[in-house]
Design goal:
single chain; about 375 residues; alpha+beta; 5-stranded mixed beta barrel; 14 helices; about 45% helix
């Protein structure tokens, strides 16, 4: 059962991925361990109060663990697991594809599309720069095609950087023809390269995406700027104005000083890339939110990345259609129903009593403030 299919009070006995493992302090001065366990559809918390050292060795970030416990929704701390048992997962008992999210499009398709887009760049110096970055034998391309785009909010998975930058570049290419004065080749080049600093800023382990020391100390914008600046300096005769235009897009693509850009977008091309980059990130958050929704749900809870709740109209239409079909079956005379549509048999009193006993075996978990 996937995380987004769990319901309050259900017993779980399955493999989950350790997203985070953090030792924290309790109010009485002792320690506890807070795990974040999940799969490709979401994550939830699990508090460990005893045998912390043993659990820390077993449940390191990125490890697959076999979890036995009860899922409940705490009124204050939200979804979590009241743990019964935890052990290392047998590799034969799970598929990594169930635990790790991935892009909506196939990697081979995205590679073809990026090659097609590169073929539309006419300016020879920009084309040479892009070929050095995206060439089949390029070390940069080998990292670019597998790197994540983020740690949390959008495309936080293997091949996420390729998916995000390709989407931004394709949108920039399409919109460049709509507004006058935009140098399409510069804008597309900047869109493809704007997040290249993430190759050094994030680890490439799909089980455990973390900021590197360089990412924490310098930031992905500075890392990307210096990488592309060095690549440009190795191209003889690269026009200084083109270098400034591309590097300015990288430096300003976050759009504001408080969001990490050392300069504001000051050109049409930089403004366009910033706006589309921001849009791509927000729409990528909708993809993540929808994957985490429980079956039949059309509204999400509050999401920090979009600053509110998300609504999915197609899911609402499907829910309305299902409700209408169920209502029609209820209104149909019992004599006309097929055996599969007959009313379910009632549970025996003994079965009901057993269920009540199981539901009372655990007290709700709590998290120390």
């Amino acid at each position: 059962m996937l995380v987004n299919e769990l319901t309050d009070g259900i017993e779980i006995d399955q493999v989950l991925l350790v997203r985070q493992a953090e030792r924290r302090q309790r109010r009485d001065g002792g320690d506890y361990l807070r795990l974040q366990l999940g799969d490709r559809t979401g994550a939830l918390a699990c508090m460990i109060w005893e045998e912390l050292a043993e659990v820390e060795q077993l449940a390191k970030a990125g490890a697959a663990v076999h979890v036995r416990g009860r899922y409940n929704i705490h009124p204050r701390f939200g979804p979590q697991i009241n743990l019964h048992g935890l052990e290392a997962a047998d590799p034969e008992t799970f598929s990594l594809d169930d635990l790790i999210d991935g892009p909506l499009r196939g990697v081979e398709q995205m590679e073809r599309e990026i090659r097609e887009l590169l073929g539309t760049v006419q300016e020879p110096h920009l084309l040479l720069l892009l070929e050095r970055v995206f060439g089949e034998d390029s070390e940069l391309w080998a990292g670019y095609r597998v790197a994540p785009a983020a740690k949390y909010y959008h495309q936080a998975y293997e091949h996420g950087l390729l998916e995000h930058c390709l989407g931004v570049a394709q949108a920039v290419s399409a919109i460049s023809a709509t507004f006058p004065g935009i140098d399409r080749d510069v804008a597309v080049t900047g869109a493809l390269l704007h997040d290249i600093g993430k190759l050094e800023a994030y680890t490439d382990d799909p089980r455990n995406i973390e900021l590197t020391n360089a990412g924490k100390l310098q930031g992905e914008i500075a890392l990307g700027y210096y990488r592309i600046r060095r690549a440009i300096e190795d191209i003889e005769g690269f026009p200084p104005e083109l270098s400034e235009a591309v590097c300015h897009i990288i430096l300003s693509h976050h759009g504001s000083l408080e969001h990490g850009s050392p300069v504001l977008p000051c050109t049409r091309e930089a403004t366009l890339v910033h706006m589309i980059d921001n849009l791509g990130g927000r729409l990528g958050s909708f993809d993540r939110i929808e994957k985490e929704l429980a079956p039949g749900a059309c509204w999400s809870g509050f999401d920090r990345a979009i600053g509110g709740s998300a609504f999915f109209a197609e899911r609402a239409s499907e829910a309305d259609a299902d409700a209408g079909a169920a209502r029609s079956r209820r209104e149909q005379p019992v004599s006309e129903r097929t055996p599969l549509e007959a009313e379910p048999a009632e549970l025996s009193p003994a079965a009901t009593e057993v269920g009540a006993q199981i539901a009372l075996t655990d007290e709700p978990a709590r998290e120390a403030a």
